[in-house]
Amino acid sequence: MITKTVKQISEMIKIENDLSEFQNIEVRGLSIDSRKIEQGNLFVPFKGENSDGHRFVEEAIQKGAAAAFWQKDVPNPPLHLPILIVEDTLLALQELARAYRNMLNVRIVGITGSNGKTTTKDMTANLLAIEYKVQKTEGNFNNEIGLPLTILALEEDTEIAVLEMGMSSRGEIDFLTRLARPEAAIITNIGESHLLDLGSREGITEAKLEIINGLQENGLVTYYGDEPLLSEKLLDYKGNIMIKTFGRRGINNIYPVDIEQNDNGSVFSTNVSNSEFKLPVLGTHNVLNALAAMTVANQFGVPYEKMNEGFAKLKLTNMRTELLQGRKGEKIINDAYNASPTSMHAAIELLSHLPGYKNKILVLGDMLELGPEEKNFHLKMGESIDPNKINYVLTFGKLGEWIAEGARKKLPADHVFSFTEKQLLIEKIEKLVDEETIVLVKASRGMKLEEIIAALQ
């Protein structure tokens, strides 16, 4: 993590006040939450519409913070304390991260996409760790606050940092990539998340492609080559970068030749290696995420033959195709972290093709932020379910009712149920499950379907 004196920080970014009294104080790391202060941290308060972190500056220093930022337009700064007055605390955080990143001899991998960013980040970091000292974005620290904090948490001897880059509108990834200056970038896919903000999949594509704006010269961008919107933009790209594709089809630089699924994950082979790869993660879509990670790791010199070492140690961030067990012996796939039409289709495909179960139950909730076509997306999702591969469909939420409406066109009416109360949904699931049952749970983050999973365990 960043370890600098107050004087050194004042040389990295513009400070508005005299710090000579405190210039030798050493800062170690940062915190934006006064409840999580660690000894020596720099506390960064933010001024919001409904709350103001400046109220907690003195408390943070009492708890062990070495110093704190203070926004210029906030009155009554406690100047008897080590306060660094800046024009804007968020901009100061970002500029400090930029200056620190430029001091480090670190190579950066940037990852964006509509779905699979966090999973691909975890895979990429594991594969690169076979040969390098690696750090990665923790949790979902992938925005204009989280990414600077991740950079400032990098150790000075870190060789590669794998950084997730999220967005909700145009220009956000452009800012993040120019700050990070990646040597390699992955675009996992183009889905329907943020249609409400960006209006179309074409708009989402443009926003994701901003990651190239900060890519270093001769850097690598690898993308999902089965997506026409990406291919149209990148096949004739004139910039001085390398372009590689991954996907299901043989037109890609790397693609799966064979995939076998079981409770323990996937076993697959590819066109680029004679090795067989064992991925301890469920879902064909995660094999595609693995191909993206493998492309970048190989570009950084990790041999394909060693990659199973990295896959064997893989542990995904929670609530992403996590296999659990319920009280009645049923298996539960917890994929409740988030959902879009693309990722929900992938989850349905996963459950449809998973062998070894007599009873397969889909528990699906609302997919949010899909714009004016949201009802149609949910209806079509229900219509896509194969009654020969799925036994029951249970939905939660007002939009989930449209999934049920579509599913009733395929499954018997007494095998499709719709709920707006979680307790009633839980009681229904408990009546349907036994030791030969597997339940998959998926919805947007706001639906909090992990509460259903907790009740079944």
TrEMBL record:
Positions of the Mur ligase C-terminal domain: 319-445
InterPro entries: Mur-like_cat_sf (IPR036565), Mur_ligase_C (IPR004101), Mur_ligase_C_dom_sf (IPR036615), Mur_ligase_cen (IPR013221), Mur_ligase_N (IPR000713), MurCDEF_CellWall_CoF430Synth (IPR051046), MurE/MurF_N (IPR035911), UDP-N-AcMur_synth (IPR005863)
Residue span(s) of domain Mur ligase central: 111-297
Keywords, in A-Z order: ATP-binding, Cell cycle, Cell division, Cell shape, Cell wall biogenesis/degradation, Cytoplasm, Ligase, Nucleotide-binding, Peptidoglycan synthesis
GO cellular component terms attached to this protein's record: cytoplasm
Catalytic activity: D-alanyl-D-alanine + UDP-N-acetyl-alpha-D-muramoyl-L-alanyl-gamma-D-glutamyl-meso-2,6-diaminopimelate + ATP = UDP-N-acetyl-alpha-D-muramoyl-L-alanyl-gamma-D-glutamyl-meso-2,6-diaminopimeloyl-D-alanyl-D-alanine + ADP + phosphate + H(+)
Domain Mur ligase N-terminal catalytic residue range list: 27-101
Binding site for ATP: G113, S114, N115, G116, K117, T118, T119
Name the record gives this protein: UDP-N-acetylmuramoyl-tripeptide--D-alanyl-D-alanine ligase
Natural source organism: Cytobacillus depressus
Gene: murF
